[in-house]
Target: Peptide/nickel transport system substrate-binding protein
Amino acid sequence: MHIPSTSRRLAISTCSFALALALAACSSGGSSTPSTSVSGASAAALTTGTATGDVASVTWYGGYRPVITLDPVGIADYPEETAIPNMCEPLVRVAPDYSLQPGLAAKFGYADDTHYVITVRQGVTFWDGTPMTAEDVAFSLRRNLDPRIASNYSGSFSAVEKIEATAADTVTVTLKQRSVAFTSALATLAGAVVAKAFAEKAGPGFGTPPVGVMCTGPFQFVSYDGAASLVMKKNPGYWDPAKAARAQNWTFVYPADPSALANGLASGGIDGALTLPSNVAASVQKSSAGTLYVGAEGSTPINVDLLFTSSTGHAGNADVRAGLSMALDRAGIAKAVFAGTADPLYKVAGPGTWGTAAAAYQPAYRAATAAPDLAKAKSLISGSGIGSTPLRFAFPAGDAESSQIATVVQQEAAGIGLTITLLGLPNQQYGALFVDPAARSAYDLILTKNYVELPEPLLLDQLLGGATGNMNFSGYRDAAVEDSIAKADRTADPVERARLVLEIEAKLAAALPAIPIVAPRALVFENKRLTGSTLTFSYMSSPWAAAVGGK
Model:
């Protein structure tokens, strides 16, 4: 979803969720300024291949910062959604092509417009050997409704009225209406099943490094030091032997220095990375240790945005927002900062989110495509009344990619008479901005890498502009938007849903609670001894690591 997805989380999840940016630059492993172009093997396929052998261990890059919590619904952000689905799998499986398949839910679907029925798979056990029951499933889903838990996926459950175990193998969800957001959420960590008894006994400690979690996935939790190393091992009793883990042991690492990531990949000390930072990709594109895979335009449902944190004051001024958006040289940022591994983004829901009805979205997106209009931008800023009052812009200082974007935004804003003060924060502190309103109250705008786990524009639009959107930090409200979101959420036909979504997006483009900048492409690095990595964003909600093994 978003960073601090995700989910939403995206993030989507989102994007998150807690949604910040991944580590980017490389010093000793490569230049902090990316080359003019990054190249590699095509990521057009869904996976790098099919593993045929088991391996003793794998060490993998876990993300731009250490995991904050192992609770599946705690934070929807890249580090959490890279690791947790391998231990705590969602009810519905997401294949690399984004198709939804039976998983812990043997069957799932609407019985009528207000009742969604989940048939719980029998014979599944948690790592401690206790059977998974319908009550465990209902308990896990209800956690998204509990304000004390503050699920990062709660916005996707806005249509839900109650969740009950109605039979030994059945969970029934009662809704106000059919909901695309809810059904999609079952295939994310919002739908991950945890052991009720374990979670209740753990209380506030659930998901913390000393306590961990109790789930059903192909990998089981071993240890986490809270900073540098998250260790899992193969679950010998996994319910689906055909999809059992190929690696006996798996360690996620979180190198603090981006050069350490680049050097680790090049030396083989780190076996791979998903959503690899572009500057690091530039330094390993010719490495003999493995293969870099590069996606095409629209190969991820990720977007880099500026999010406003208030609907009042200068940050809430429509002319200030519009002027800043018009001043951005999106194509230049995609080329200079991302070395061509991103594309300019002109709407928050770009080509990477068009999982269905792409033809319906293309004309409006083409119409939104525009070069910077500095003259008009200057006029808007001049008439806005902001004068020399600076906007306070927070970004993760530990991420060179983010630092470069922030600097460019500041420079381009200065060119139209808008003053921006840059405030770089440590990555962990930056992550807190996505879950703590008080923490972000000191800033006017923040840089985010938003996403949705499944390619559906409605999910991202709701995340950023809906009243219950987890990334709607500015408090944007529009009755017409809410009406269209509700209608689109209950509309099954993709083309008709697209019509409603385009109405929403027209409003969001005018109000700009978020300013889109670029859409990164898929960047995956895999060591030559391995195969089986997914090349799509489906990894954010699936136990993808189980498929990685020997050639």
Remarks:
- Residues 1-36 have pLDDT under 50 and may be disordered.
- DSSP finds 16 helices and 22 strands in the chain.
- The two ends are 32 Å apart (CA to CA).
